[in-house]
UniProtKB/TrEMBL annotation:
Record field: transmembrane: 37-56, 62-83, 104-135
The protein's name: RDD family protein
InterPro entries: Pra-immunoreactive, RDD
Alphabetic keyword roster: Cell membrane, Membrane, Transmembrane, Transmembrane helix
Membrane-related topology note: Multi-pass membrane protein
Organism: Methyloligella halotolerans
Main location: membrane
CC terms in the record's Gene Ontology section: plasma membrane
Length: 158
């Protein structure tokens, strides 16, 4: 029995060999770099989606949409993550380009609700307390705290 299995049993937590760093180190190689680049790609996509939606809604509502600028951006970002991470590919467009997939910690698929919740936690950690994003530097699975709280793990799509 591996050290990870022994530790998991001692702590009373379930052990999932599918995402064990010792058994499958290739799933986590370069994952932080890949996720960082994927974030930049996705941020550009969300900004473009937001701009198009904002311009179209401003024209259609004769300027009334200008009052809803602060609400529109989070809705686009959460919706994008819910539909992509919570969809059949289990990854955003940027993640697909970088070969990253989001899975539930137990190996299951991410639902759209969990995908939106994961994005909400990420954006809150990014805007409220940026140093929290340094957690993967000490985590064996390179999970951020918003990954842990949402119950997901990012792995290479091999």
């Amino acid at each position: 029995m591996s050290d990870a299995q022994t530790t998991a049993r001692e702590q009373g937590t379930p052990f999932n060999p599918a995402f064990d760093v010792v058994s499958h180190p290739n799933l986590f190689e370069g994952i932080l770099r890949r996720r960082s680049v994927a974030f930049i790609i996705d941020a550009i996509i969300i900004a473009v989606l937001w701009t198009v939606l904002f311009v179209v809604s401003t024209i259609l509502t004769l300027g009334i949409a200008l009052f809803f600028v602060g609400v529109l951006f989070p809705i686009v970002g959460l919706g994008y993550n819910a539909l992509t991470v919570g969809g059949p590919n289990q990854s955003t467009i940027g993640m697909r380009m970088m070969g990253v997939k989001i899975k539930m910690w137990h190996g299951g698929s991410v639902s759209p609700l969990i995908g939106a919740f994961h994005a909400l936690l990420f954006w809150l950690s990014l805007t409220i307390f940026f140093p929290i994003l340094l957690w993967p530097l000490i985590d064996r699975q390179k999970r951020c705290l918003h990954d842990i709280f949402a119950g997901v793990v990012a792995v290479r799509n091999t």
